[in-house]
Amino acid sequence: QVQLVESGGGLVQAGDSLRLSCAASGLTFSSYVMGWFRQAPGKEREFVAAISWGGSTTDYADFVKGRFTISRDNAKNTVYLQMNSLKPEDTATYYCAADASIAVRRIPTRYDFWGQGTQVTVSS
Questions:
Q1: Predicted confidence (pLDDT) per residue in 62-75, tens digit
Q2: CA distances from 89 to 81, 93, 124 (A)
Q3: pLDDT score, position 116
Q4: How many Cβ atoms sit within 10 Å of the Cβ of residue 51?
Q5: What percentage of the chain carries pLDDT values higher than 70?
Q6: pLDDT of residue 111
Q7: What are residue 62's phi and psi, to 5 degrees?
Q8: Could you tell me if 106 and 123 are in contact, meaning their C-beta atoms sit under 8 angstroms apart?
Q9: For residues 81 and 120, what is the distance between their CA atoms, to the nearest angstrom?
Q10: pLDDT by residue (tens digit) across 111-121?
Q11: pLDDT number for residue 14
């Protein structure tokens, strides 16, 4: 049974940093592209960042470039999202997802497994 468990969310002020983690089990982690998505109340789920199997390829949504960094540790079956210079508009539930394809993709429906999410709230 595949499980993705996010952690690290919380309530912070604008300009602060957070590091999200997603621990995976029940799958061959190093064979999955890993992605982070977010969903704010009343909005659709949107792509944030993704990373290839070995970590050599990353992709970011324009609104997080230069502020967020995705990384992974295949020995620990964990993917991370370092979020710096947080803004109130970053407030959302953040989800990690696993994609069995080779390509790093942005489309949520292409991902095979999802975590339950972790809440990030940024106050102004």
A1: 999 899 999 999 99
A2: 17, 12, 10
A3: 97
A4: 24
A5: 100
A6: 97
A7: -60, -35
A8: no
A9: 12
A10: 999 999 999 99
A11: 98
Q: What is the three-class DSSP state of 24?
A: strand
Residue 120 to residue 38: CA distance in whole angstroms? 9
* Interatomic CA distance for residues 82 and 41, integer angstroms: 22
Closest alpha carbon to 118 in 2, 58, 37: 37
List the structure tokens of 18: 């957070």
**No. of helices (H) and no. of strands (E), the chain:** 0, 11
Cα 55 from chain centroid? 14
Cα 37 from chain centre: 5
Whether the Cβ atoms of residue 68 and residue 40 lie closer than 8 Å to each other:
no
Instruction: Compute the distance between CA of residue 57 and CA of residue 104 in angstroms, rounded to an integer.
Output: 8
Q: What is the average per-residue pLDDT within 74-90? A: 98
CA dist list (Å): 35 to 13, 65, 84, 105: 25, 15, 18, 8
CA separation (Å) from 120 to 38, 60, 80, 123?
9, 18, 14, 10
Summarised one tens digit per residue, pLDDT across range 101-110 is: 989 999 999 9
pLDDT of residue 65: 87
